[in-house]
Amino acid sequence: MANIKSAKKRAKQTVVRNARNSAQRSQLRTAVKKVIKALDANNVVDAEAAFAVAQPLLDRFSARGLIHKNKAARHKSRLSARIKALKSAA
């Protein structure tokens, strides 16, 4: 355990940030999984609704540095392409 006051503060901040990052990462993964689940069920309406929720989360968390901006772009691109393909097939 840290002995210096600033190091103790840093340790506390790390715990708080770690909890926040874990919660936000979980929220993001859940949102993306909902889109994928709707796509696998061939449900365009639910997929679009879930994507409308997931897209701002991807943008927000990539801007905050939780995930890399290219990873967010890749997820958005692949999910929107799958939705577009499902629409054209239906």
Descriptive overview:
The longest helix is centred in the N-terminal third of the chain and has 36 residues, at 5-40. The termini are far apart. This protein has helices spanning 5-40, 44-63, 69-89. The protein has 90 residues and is an all-alpha fold. It has a single domain (5-89), classed as Ribosomal protein S20 (Methane Monooxygenase Hydroxylase, Chain G, domain 1). The radius of gyration is 18 Å and the shape is elongated. Helix content is 86%, strand content 0%. Helix 1 (5-40) runs antiparallel to helix 2, helix 1 (5-40) packs parallel to helix 3 and helix 2 packs antiparallel against helix 3 (69-89). It is built from three helices and no strands.
Strand runs, count = 0
CATH C-level class is: Mainly Alpha
**Annotated CATH homologous superfamily:** Ribosomal protein S20
The largest sheet is:
none
What is the chain-wise order of helices and strands? HHH
Q: How would the global form be characterised?
A: elongated
Distinct helical segment count = 3
Q: Compute the number of structural domains.
A: 1
> Helix- and strand-based class?
mainly alpha
Distance between the termini: 60 Å
Mean pLDDT: 96
CATH topology-level fold name = Methane Monooxygenase Hydroxylase, Chain G, domain 1
Low-confidence stretches: none
- CATH architecture label name: Up-down Bundle
